[in-house]
Automatic annotation (TrEMBL):
This is ABC transporter ATP-binding protein. It comes from Nocardioides zeae. Keywords: ATP-binding, Nucleotide-binding, Transport. PROSITE patterns: ABC_TRANSPORTER_2. Residues 18-265 form the ABC transporter domain. GO terms for cellular component: plasma membrane. The keyword Hydrolase does not apply.
Amino acid sequence: MSTLSRPTRQAVTTVAVLDVREVTLRFGGITALESLSFRAESGEICGLIGPNGAGKTSLFNCISRVYQPTSGEVLLDGRNLLDSPAHQVARLGVARTFQNLGLFPTMTFLENTMAGAHPHGRAGFLRSLLRLGVAREDREMRAQAFALLERLGLAELAFEKAADQPYGTLKRLELARALAGSPKLLMLDEPAGGLTHGEVHELGELIRELRDELGLTVVLVEHHMGMVMGISDKVVAMSFGKLIAEGTPAEIQVHPEVVTAYLGTPA
């Protein structure tokens, strides 16, 4: 199994930015999540692994309020996100990327990135729509978005449309858009999907650097085990909507239930 170098930084506080408590999600007779509990501490990179259908994306959809869990709690800094409507989640400090890109192909890289900051705008929807008194805020968002594109190596594409750009480049753009909202919790859903081996390595290093620079807590869903095990402080393993193991990457790689359910038994 290929790995990146292990992070040397460890979480130094016991404050849980994300605290998932006994979350169950049912669709009719189908149980997508069953009494799932885990914590992501402040400044931690938490890898979430499991076979297809394990419930990883369903969990992301519960945290971002796309789905309403059947029962349980999802706490962000002690506040139950399930008490907040979906449109307020970004304002509370949650941002995510998607397994399938959710960008605006006819908009430029700069415009796509700026879109990630609009939920935090002070002007409000109606004033923004009518362009009333938003010039200063627009300039600020534009400058912040350009700085993010520059940090992610995309500045030269700032005024290019997202359509027809390479997949790996668009993955970075989606990351820029998520970061534009200045989140405290960043959820990454399959960020390495479709990338080359070299791009995966670079992305792993970038996620770790951004965590340190911006003080992020990161929850990462990814099938590329080298990347997960290389950058995660903690790994949570799921199967059929249930937690089967939680621990350091070294512990998870040899955990019997994880080996059987996901990593595979050596020949």
